[in-house]
Every structure is written in structure tokens, then in C-alpha cells.
């Protein structure tokens, strides 16, 4: 196996594409998933905005989207992706399906984090006459910040894996490189390098996340 024949410039470009896909998708996932997770929590039974039809509808949508395998979602969303991003290829074409797949996952993580908080926080806020919005912004989110940050890291790691799968439809990044060169052209050296880079990215994300969560926990 000769690693000297690898086009390292192409590897570098694919790595940057993977980071861009993961980064932009993570931002939109948090923007959509955080409010959705909070709404799931607030509309669940015995909470401030308890509403069974709303909660069951949101929960069903989240569960359905989480149940669809990402590879199938990529293909099904191609027409919608073209409308949203103008293309279904490259980094822009991979971001919409990545967000649609990850946002429900992150929302459920946020809901679970909020459920694990001390119920006394809600009771204290109600006793002081706080509105649901004040309770969320002033009490729930600050108390749940460590758990939410951990959920962001878990989602980011999942997005790295999803971004690799987007190469199946020409989404670019390391997954596309591994498919075109490592699989279709039988260049196992390219496959090994792309897998190694993905593993390193995940490890770096996990290490960074653990340190950040640990520092926030001490505060």
C-alpha cells in the first residue's frame, strides 16, 4: 500500500468540506432543535403549557423523522433540497437533509435534559408568578446548560457520520472521496486515510466537548 500516491490536496479539500457541512448543519440544527425540544417539554403532561394534542403531534413528527434512515432521507429530499439550496450536490446540497435528520434527534435530547432537572425549579418559578418564557430563559436553560452542551456535542459527532454518508449522492466531503476513490476505484489507501481522518475528527470533538462540559460543570 503506497500512501505517496494519494492526492493530499484533494484530501484536505474534502476534509474542509466535511467540516463546513458539519458546522453549518450543527448551527441550523441547534436553531431549530433547541426551541423544538423546549416546546416538547413545555407541552408534555404536567408542564406549564401542557397540551396533549400538540405534544403528541410534535412527538410523532420527531419520531417519524428520527426513524427514517439518513440514506433514504437524502434521496427522498432531493427535490426539496434543490428548492431550498438550489442544488442537491456538494456542501449546500447536503446541509438541508443533515438538518432535517439531526434537528429532531437534538430536540429529543434537549427534552430529556429538561426532564432530568429538579421539579422544584418549575414550582419555584410558578410560585413567583413567572411566565413560561421567563421560566425557560431565566431558570430552565441556565440550569440545563451543561446537559444541552453535551447534547450539542453528541449531535455534532452524529453529523460527522451523516456527512460521510452524503457522499452517496455527491454531497462532497470525505464520504464522497471514500466512495469515488476508495470504493469505486479500489484505492484502499484513500479509504484508510479518509476513515482515519473521520475518527480523528470525532475524537477531537469528543475531547473538546468533554473539557467544555467539565469546565461548565465546575462553574
Q: Can you summarize this structure?
A:
The protein has helices spanning 8-43, 52-67, 70-76, 78-85, 90-115, 119-127, 132-165, 173-183, 188-218. It has 219 residues and is mainly α.
Can you give a write-up of this model?
The chain is mainly alpha-helical. The chain has nine helices and no strands. The protein has helices at 8-43, 52-67, 70-76, 78-85, 90-115, 119-127, 132-165, 173-183, 188-218. Helix 2 crosses helix 5 (90-115) and helix 7 packs antiparallel against helix 9. The protein is elongated and about 70 Å long. The mean pLDDT is 86.
**Secondary-structure content class:** mainly alpha
Low-confidence stretches: none
Q: What is the tally of beta strands?
A: 0
Order of helices and strands: HHHHHHHHH
Tell me the helix content. Answer: over 70%
Average pLDDT for all residues? 86
Please count the helical segments: 9
Beta percentage is under 5%
- Rg calculated over all Cα atoms: 20 Å
Q: Could you describe the largest sheet, including whether it forms a barrel? A: none
The best one-word shape is elongated
Distance between the termini: 50 Å
